Fold this protein.
Amino acid sequence: MAPVETEGISHGESHAVLIGVSTYQDTSFPAVPAALNSVRGMLDALTDPELCGWPEDRVTIIENPENAAALAQQLRRIAEQTSDTLLVYFVGHGVISDLGDVCLAVHGTDLRDPDLTGLEYPKVRRIVMGSPAQVKIVILDCCYSGRAIQGLSAGGDGHFADATAVSGAYTLTAADGTAHVAPLAEQMTVPTSFTRAFLDIVRQGIQDGPSALTLGDIYRELRPLVMARGLPAPNRRGTDTADLYTFARNVAFRPPGRRVERAGDLTVRLITPEAEELFIQLMEKQDPVALTHENLATLDDSPGVYQLYRSLGGPGSAIVYVGQSDRSLQQRLQGQMVKISGRLNIDVSEMSFTRLYVEDDLSVVYPARLLINRLLDQGEDAPWHMNGFGNSDPGRNRDRTVLKSRHFDALYPINLAWAIRNDGQRGRVTALEFATLLKGKLPYLFRFAYQGSEIETVSVEIPEGAISADEAFRLLAAALGTEWQISALSGYVVMYRERDVEYPSATRYYCGTRVWDSTPELYGA
């Protein structure tokens, strides 16, 4: 398997399973709040199109699983249906059974019987080996305490990595002995120490490294980094050429542009630093123009890079987002203008933009990263960058995600008072037709299930004139009855044949004629 660019990897038949256990019924296990921060950090990195580029519906989050057998069964079902890349990540406590097997502790694990109440790693190994996935990756970030520390340490050097070796796969482990986490008082806002170091490399990239980072590249940086931080040395096992699997784009990569002598070798640099500087200067010299339909209509239907600015009424404005489109700048900016228009706490009139068309291959040149790096060098930041602004449909698996407090959807939730103007259909239509009409009219995502006789048979009277999104959802919920629930999340709305289901980021629920508000759950600073 040769290293390839992240754009060349198909994740369509891939699946990542991120498992985090932060609380335990058995008080012998200390709580690990950092575990859930680690899961969410891995999720953000995997689904970031600028880093790993996984579709959000190909990542499953499992937080505080109660039962080891049920967890193993869920993992097996996913593994059986994965043919490209299978990634299994676990963070929490791990113990060694009397027989010497590594057991992953779930919420209901009893420290006295880890082999009976925990998930024995040999079971995980068999599940992973049984998957038709071409590439199999297992990352274990386990911390230990009390008997668990003694039990794991007794295995000797390399014991843990050997216990997790999977044929044809790549396994990465936090420590052969005792793993490390921050003090409990600090864990509410940080990941575990090992995952934090791993994510630091993925997010910051490797200077003078290749354009895409393989698992081998990451490990070569990870081991000295964690040891320099005074943490236990990680370990890894790989078979065949699994260490050549491309895990992420190297955001620190600088394309070559001129011939340079370096330590007696000749390096070819195709894009010169002078060209990069000229590009940045051209962007900086532009005056932002208002984000309006009129200004967007003047844009060419060509690829390029852009910067979004926001003014809060004072002098000047600040960059909030840097992006690029390899197809059409006009369409990308039109979509983002619509997205902003449907949000609270912000107004499109505050927004402006600059843009520059780029003829080069954007997947190689990646000009947006040059602008972001310049901002960072100047001690500034684009606050919407990597905070959810660029997401489209996050997928069903993300509906129960707890948002960061600085996530775009948390700061600027959807506006349920948005006016829907119906210029066409009148009279009575099926609930499915009404839901489809709303989907096309709303400035934010409305995802709904098509199964169920009610949505195709019950009818809704389309009111004359404009109605708010809230009124539309009330009509639809009343027509479908109490077996269906509409949930307005912070960033979008979902409708399924379910009832009394709670979502962490929900702001309002509709079920039959009942409507009730909810306060979103947030984490982090």
